[in-house]
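Bumping my old thread because nobody answered last time. Still need a sequence for this structure:
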């Protein structure tokens, strides 16, 4: 399977860099605050675990090659500091390319529109890559992440998956019929 490869993307305030192992050291600091795990679970990674994770993720696809892995580090263009990441996991479902989206912005940089701006650049690029459906899995009480999804044109569906609501948009913005 040939999956799209992440390329560098620019927004007004941020550059989105395709993830690489060398990002592990600075991202250990970005991912350290415990509040980041309030809705998703998990814990701050060590630099070694992040190097190992980034080594796997930067391959661009799952080991079985049944999913494409696209990851970008979000970096401010003024200070050049990394502030978070955006992510899309691609799969083929019913002959359509579907992208499961995720985002994280470190607390010091939150509530400035960073997640919405960076994720919008990712979505714009995904739309050039034959992606037909966008999807996100969000805890029902996770207001910030729900707002990011809304800003991207995703809408909540009735479907739940592991306690998370499934949000969707199809190309053209119509919500999925489930
Ligand atoms: C979710 C997250 C990425 C949002 O990042 P962000 O850069 O603050 O998001 P934005 O600044 O683009 O804000 C989007 C909207 O959410 C609102 N918002 C942000 N943080 C909020 C909060 N703590 N409570 C309520 N609303 C919040 C903003 O006001 C904005 O609303 P608007 O579109 O009406 O103006 C960030 O909180 C985060 O990284 N959380 C931890 C990781 C996580 O849970 N990721 C999502 C997994 S589904």
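Sorry it took so long. Here it is:
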């Amino acid at each position: 399977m040939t999956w799209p490869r992440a390329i560098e993307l620019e927004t007004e305030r941020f550059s989105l860099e395709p993830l690489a192992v060398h990002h592990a050291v600075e991202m250990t600091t970005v991912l350290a605050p415990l509040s980041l795990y309030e809705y998703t679970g998990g814990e701050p990674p060590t630099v070694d675990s992040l190097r190992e994770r980034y080594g796997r993720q930067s391959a661009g696809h799952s080991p079985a090659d049944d999913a494409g892995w696209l990851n970008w580090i979000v970096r401010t263009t003024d200070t050049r500091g990394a502030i978070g990441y955006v992510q899309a996991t691609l799969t083929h479902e019913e002959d359509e390319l579907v992208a499961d989206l995720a985002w994280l912005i470190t607390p010091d940089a939150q509530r400035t529109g960073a997640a919405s701006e960076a994720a919008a650049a990712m979505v714009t690029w995904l739309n050039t890559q034959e992606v037909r459906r966008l999807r996100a899995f969000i805890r029902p009480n996770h207001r910030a992440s729900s707002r990011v999804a809304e800003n991207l044109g995703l809408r909540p569906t009735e479907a739940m998956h592991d306690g998370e609501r499934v949000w969707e948009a199809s190309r053209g913005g119509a919500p999925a019929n489930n």
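Residues 9-170 form a domain with the Aminopeptidase fold (CATH 3.40.630.30). Let me know if any region looks off to you.
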